[in-house]
Amino acid sequence: MMNKTIAVWFAAAVTSATCLAQGSQTVAEDFKPSTLNQPGQEYPQVNSQGYARFRIKAPQADSVKVSLGLGGRGGTKLVKGADGFWTGTTEGPMDEGFHYYHLTVDGGTFNDPGTLNYYGSVRWESGIEIPAHDQDFYALKDVPHGHVQQILFPSKSTQTSRRAFVYTPPGYEKETAKKYPVLYLQHGWGEDETAWSNQGRANLIMDNLIAEGKIKPFIIVMTYGMTNEVKWGRIRDFKIEPFQTVLVDELIPYVDANFRTLADRSNRAMAGLSMGGMETRQITLNKPEVFGAYALLSGGVYTPDDLKGKPQAKLIFLSCGSKENPDRVKTAVADLKAAGYPAVSYVSDKTAHEFQTWRRSLHELAPLLFK
C-alpha cells in the first residue's frame, strides 16, 4: 500500500496542547488517559468535558485523520509538528460512553496501538471511553461477580460448531439445585457475540444490580446473529430464517441441556440492539411461543397489529437514545398500552445510536424481566 514506515502512537483528548477555546467553550486541560488504553499507554486521553485528543507519530506521513468526530464531518484532522507527531482535538465534546474509532494515514486504515480493540463495523476497531456521569452502574466494583464463559454448540443447519458467550450470575456454581431464567441478548450489525460483554459491560451491569438486590438473577446468552452476512446499506436483504433456526432449534436446546435453566416461555426473553433488535422483533413474531418477554433497543417497534392473535408477552420493552427517534418509541408504547399490552418505553438522555444508550437500556430492562 505505502512504502513509508509509519510508527503510530495515538492520543485522544478534549483540547489542544494549550488551553484554547473551541466554539464558545473553553477546553479544560485536565486530560487523562482513556480507561480503555493498553497498559502503560498515555494516549488516547479524554477530559472532563468529553473532548478527545489525538497524537500520532507518523513522521513520513502526509495526512493523518481520526474517524472519531462530530456531526458526520469526517472525523478529526490532525496537524503535523516539527517532531513528527500529529496532534488534534475533537471540535466539541463527544457523547458519554464508548466509541469506536480508527486512524486514516495517507489513505490507509490503521488501529491505534495505544488502546484496546473491539469488534465493530465488521472489523476490530480501536475503542475510547468518554467518562459518563452515570458510569457507576457499569463500574467494576467489589461485589460478587458472575462468570462469562465461551461455549461451542453444534449446528447441523450450518454444519459448524458455533460460539456463544454465557453469563451466569454469582453463586451459580455453588447453588447446584437452583434454576434460572434466560435472556438471549443480540448485538448489532458489524459486531459479534463479544460486543455485549466487551463494549456493553453486560456482566458488570448484572453483577451490580444483583448486589444491590434490584433484580432476580438470570442467565444471559450472547451469540453471533449472522448480521454481517449483508453489507451496510443492504440490511433489507437480510433473511432471518438461518439465524432463527440456529437460535431456536440449536442454541436454546443446547443451553437448556447444559445449564440449569427454567426452560419455559415465561422464563425466556429475547432482546437486541439495532439490527439485533430487528432480529428480535422478527423472531419473537415468528416464534411467540418460545419467548415470554421482548426488548428492542434502538431496534424498531411493535404495533398492536403485529401482536394480534399471538400469545401475549409478559413485557414489551422499547428504547432508544434521545438523539434518535424517541417520539416513535413513546408513541408505539402508548399504542401498545392502549391495546392492553404490557409495554414500557425508555429514552437514554443525550445519547444516540451508541453503546451508552444500550448500556442504560439493559440497566432499565433487567429489573423488569422475570419478576
UniProtKB/TrEMBL annotation:
Domain of life per record: Bacteria
Residue runs in coiled coils: none
Keyword field: Hydrolase, Signal
Keyword Signal: yes
Alphabetical list of Pfam families matching this protein: Esterase
Signal peptide: 1-21
Any one GO molecular function term: hydrolase activity
Record has Secreted as a keyword: no
Family annotation (PANTHER family): DIACYLGLYCEROL ACYLTRANSFERASE_MYCOLYLTRANSFERASE AG85A (PTHR48098:SF1), ENTEROCHELIN ESTERASE-RELATED (PTHR48098)
Protein name per UniProt: Alpha/beta hydrolase-fold protein
Organism from which the protein derives: Larkinella bovis
